[in-house]
Write a structure and sequence with these properties.
Number of domains: 3
Radius of gyration: 25 Å
Keywords: Coiled coil
GO molecular function: DNA binding; transposase activity
Strand order of the largest sheet: 3-2-1-4-5
Structural class: alpha/beta
């Protein structure tokens, strides 16, 4: 017997509803958000389909259920709300709605790339986060210099400039530089890993052949697209990247607004 599970995922808890082929509720529970609790809840359920709504916390449980052997569906949040809008909104009702939609084959799905691409996206996001942190501490150092009316010669953050900065022996600057050096090590390690992956990825190297694209930007484009066949044509691809202007047309009048991303 195939069973259908709707999983409403929150930071602290899960709300789950399991339905049989006839839509009858087999199990309905609320339990803590942990992978151990997920394994415990699904331990008595063999096979079937699981639907969960895309949220900040979806990926770990999606991967876990995938590894256990379930057919996992990621619901498109906005489209799911349009179909399953209810006057009484509770977390258990939400999980029940997801289970019903996946049972009837009406679940609007969000695209989920294969695990290799998901891992690559996480690596690229981590590099962006580390670079942003480094920029924050560099700005703090510049603020310390500005407070003291100090201007150093040369290109900022390059050899002679850094030597002058070190010779100043300003305590806050020294503290920030320790953090920056640590961030540099981690950023360089990730960039080396991204470069090695790019060298083995034909699509990324094709993108990098375009003037102005680095290994990082090429891999970012590659990871964002994931599967080019999911786009019917170039217009849909451009819209996905948010470079298509919005259009309003009424009564023979057409106006173009800000770019859209869909």
């Amino acid at each position: 017997m195939t069973v259908y599970t709707g999983l409403d995922v929150h930071k602290e808890t899960y709300h789950a509803t399991v339905l049989d082929e006839d839509g009858e509720t087999i199990r309905q529970e609320r339990f803590p958000n942990s992978l151990e609790e997920i394994k415990s809840f699904f331990s008595g359920i063999e096979g079937g389909k699981v639907a969960l709504e895309a949220s900040y916390y979806w990926e770990p449980v999606y991967t876990e259920l995938e590894e256990i052997g379930f057919e996992v569906k990621l619901a498109h949040p906005r489209k799911t709300r349009v179909i399953a809008d209810e006057k009484i909104k509770t977390d258990l009702r939400a999980s029940e709605a997801l289970a019903q939609l996946v049972r009837m084959g009406w679940l609007p799905e969000a695209y989920v790339p294969r695990k290799e691409i998901r891992d690559l996206r996480e690596l690229l996001r981590r590099r962006v986060s580390l670079v942003n942190s480094r920029t924050k501490y560099r700005n703090k150092i510049q603020a310390e210099l500005a407070k003291r009316r100090i201007e150093l010669e040369g290109t900022p953050w390059c050899g002679p400039w850094l030597n002058q900065l070190h010779d100043l022996e300003i305590d806050p600057v020294e503290d920030y530089m320790i953090i920056i050096r640590s961030l540099n090590d981690r950023i360089n390690r990730i960039e080396k890993e991204v470069e090695e992956k790019a060298e083995k990825t034909e699509e990324a190297m094709l993108i990098k052949s375009i003037p102005g694209f680095s290994y990082f930007s090429a891999m970012t484009i590659y990871a964002s697209i994931a599967d080019i066949d999911r786009f019917p044509g170039p217009k849909e691809l451009c819209s996905y990247f948010g470079v298509v202007p919005s259009t309003e047309q009424s009564g023979g009048k057409k106006t173009h607004g800000p770019i859209t991303k869909e």
